TrEMBL record:
It is an enzyme of class 3 (hydrolase). Its cofactor is Mn(2+). Its EC number is 3.1.3.16. This is Serine/threonine protein phosphatase PstP. Keywords: Hydrolase, Manganese, Membrane, Metal-binding, Protein phosphatase, Transmembrane, Transmembrane helix. Pfam families: PP2C_2. One of its GO terms (molecular function) is protein serine/threonine phosphatase activity.
Length: 469
């Protein structure tokens, strides 16, 4: 039996983000989704580097025995590239990416997985999540501390514990080999899809849409219709028996590259360029993304909801479930090992946390924090750096709830803006009598402006550090 893959890849920036940090790849032998993270440029570069390192595996013949080793070796090369790039360009420190990849070797599929992107298998009408999320809440579920339903709304549901990053330590991916059965349909996706569209809807779409291109388009549309605040990337692939196909209906062999790895260049074709040329083009794209002026890069990016080159967007009508927080807190093993004193590797992880910001509570006030709301043993990974002067006790309950779960931000300026907006909105709600709890009809009418000015943000005392957890 002669097996082949019929595939389609799609990616979209989503409805909120200004740039696409996802990358996707689909070819005759290789399927990959990489969800980058680490700031405006870092995530773009990280996911592109991952694709560049893996692309040479496509178009080459691999035996079932060596496919796993080749896949793992390429992922390690990507890790080394990330480390080297962050050393030469300090602005990229802390970048990382998920990697979910399938390499076909005859009638076997070798799989590698790091992070919270996912691989699903639709076989005989039943959808199975093949990969396990490397997240904090999945760990809590696996250890019986919370239920899967509780994980859906857990405040730390976006904390990723294993990721391919620029930390000079070995993070071994989950590796496995599976049988490629004709009739199987595989879906690889970033959490821009799986975090916003229910498994039931995903299963129905995979089952009811025979054409892989239409299926990929529909899945992407579902995520956008759900209001996905994250980048969305999907790769759909059918396992087909080539011997049983009519003449002229064999699957194509051109590679499809989408997301940040495809921006500002034409997607490579395996037949025309070969794996080495594809890898070189992908690496050049990653380097260009890292050196572009941010303003120029933004101008070349699609607006929210529009498709970038090699991408599609649209709307669907199917049921969707509420979305998740727009910003993921990423906790990697290097961070958790700070307390163990593992030298440079651990310090690199800690240093990355100090490039992150969020809004929380310190000394009973709304505060801007540097770091992430996590602890590594006795080490606190965040510090309040600015206090707004607004007492949490004076805020409505719904605002307090948001602050207690923390509000992630893209930068220090973004954190300041979010804090000021939060205080201003809460003051406006209070002045108009709008709260999340029933109010007494005899409540005195507010005097003064209906849109009070937000209190100025002031630096936090150096000896008054509080907790953002």
């Amino acid at each position: 039996m002669n097996i082949a893959l019929r595939y389609a890849a799609r990616s979209d920036v989503g409805l909120v983000r200004s740039n696409n940090q996802d990358s996707g790849y689909a070819g005759p032998h290789l399927l990959v989704v990489a969800d980058g993270m680490g700031g405006h440029a870092g995530g773009d570069v990280a996911s592109s580097i991952a694709i560049a390192a893996l692309a040479p595996l496509d178009g080459e013949s691999h035996g079932p025995d060596d496919a796993l080793a080749e896949l793992e070796r390429s992922i390690d090369h990507a890790r080394q590239d990330l480390v080297e790039r962050s050393v030469t360009d300090p602005e990229l420190v802390g970048m990382g990416t998920t990697v979910t990849a399938i390499l076909r070797a005859g009638n076997k599929l070798a799989m590698a997985h790091l992070g919270d992107s996912r691989a699903y298998l639709l076989r005989d009408g039943e959808l199975t999540q093949v990969t396990t999320d490397h997240t904090f809440v999945q760990h809590l579920v696996d250890t019986g501390r919370i239920s899967p339903d509780e994980a859906e709304t857990h405040p730390q549901r976006n904390v990723v514990m294993r990721v391919l990053g620029d930390f000079d330590i070995d993070l071994t991916p989950d590796m496995s080999v599976r049988e490629a059965k004709p009739g199987d349909r595989w879906l690889l996706c970033s959490d821009g899809l799986s975090g916003f569209v229910s498994p039931e809807t995903i299963a129905q779409t995979l089952a009811d849409t025979p054409d892989v291109d239409e299926c990929a388009d529909h899945l992407l549309q579902l995520a956008l219709r759900a209001g996905s605040t994250d980048n969305v990337t999907v790769v759909v692939a059918d396992v087909v028996d080539v011997d049983g196909l009519p003449d002229g209906s064999a699957p194509g062999t051109g590679a499809q590259v989408v997301g940040s790895a495809a921006i500002d260049r034409d997607a490579p074709t395996s037949a025309a360029d070969g794996p080495a040329a594809r890898a070189a083009a992908l690496m050049a794209s990653a380097k260009a993304a890292a050196t572009e002026d941010p303003a120029t890069n933004d101008a070349s990016e699609p607006e929210a909801g529009d498709a970038a080159p090699g991408e599609t967007s649209g709307e669907g009508d199917d049921d969707v479930r509420p979305g998740r927080a727009p910003r993921r807190w990423v906790t990697v093993v290097a961070i958790l090992l700070v307390v163990a004193g593992l030298g440079v590797a651990a310090w690199a992880g800690y240093r990355w946390t100090q490039t992150q910001y969020y809004v929380g509570v310190a000394d009973g006030q709304v505060a801007v924090f540097r770091g992430i709301p996590e602890n590594a043993g006795p080490v606190t990974l965040s510090t309040p750096i600015e206090l707004t002067g607004t007492r949490v006790a004076d805020l409505p309950g719904y605002v307090v709830d948001r602050l207690e779960t923390t509000i992630p931000a893209e930068s220090l300026d973004d954190a300041r803006a979010r804090a000021e907006r939060l205080v201003a909105d809460a003051a406006a709600d209070t002045s108009t009598g709008t709260t999340d709890e029933p109010t007494d009809t005899s409540t005195e009418e507010s005097t003064g402006s209906s849109e009070p000015e937000a209190p100025a943000v002031t630096p936090a005392p150096t000896d008054g550090a509080g907790s953002g957890a």
